[in-house]
Specification:
The protein has 129 residues and is mainly beta. The protein has no helices and ten strands. It is globular and about 40 Å long. The relative contact order is 0.31. The mean pLDDT is 94.
Length: 129
């Protein structure tokens, strides 16, 4: 069964950095498209970043481009989201997802097309002074 467990969230001041991790179990990540999503209180889930399992091409939500980086370590079966220059509006629960089809994880769909697995518990990121 496809299982993903997120970690690495926390409280950080505006302008700070965090690196989120997502460990896969029950399958290997290297042939999957991977994505990060977030959901703030009272708001819909939002796509943040995704990467192709074929050629590693990455896509980002416009507001996080040049500040966030999605990457993966196949040896550790882990996908990461490095977040720099964090802003208070980044406060949300962050989730990862894996799918055979990159298109389903594109940020503009907000995870609505994701159906391969269940959403995990996520990891809370709070950006506040």
């Amino acid at each position: 069964q496809l299982q993903l467990v997120e970690s690495g969230g926390g409280l950080v001041q505006p302008g700070g950095s965090l690196r989120l991790s997502c460990v896969a179990s029950g399958f290997t990540l290297d042939s999957y498209a991977l994505g990060w999503f977030r959901q703030a209180p009272g708001k819909e889930r939002e796509g943040v970043a995704c990467t192709s399992g074929v050629d590693g091409t990455t896509y980002y939500l416009d507001s996080v481009k040049d500040r966030f980086t999605i990457s993966k370590d196949n040896g550790k079966n882990t996908v990461y989201l490095q977040m720099n220059s964090l802003k208070p509006k980044a406060t949300a629960v962050y989730y990862c997802a894996a799918d055979f089809t990159l298109g389903k994880l594109m940020p503009e769909y907000g995870g609505r097309l994701y159906e391969l697995g269940n959403w995990g518990q996520g990891t809370q990121v709070t950006v506040s002074s």
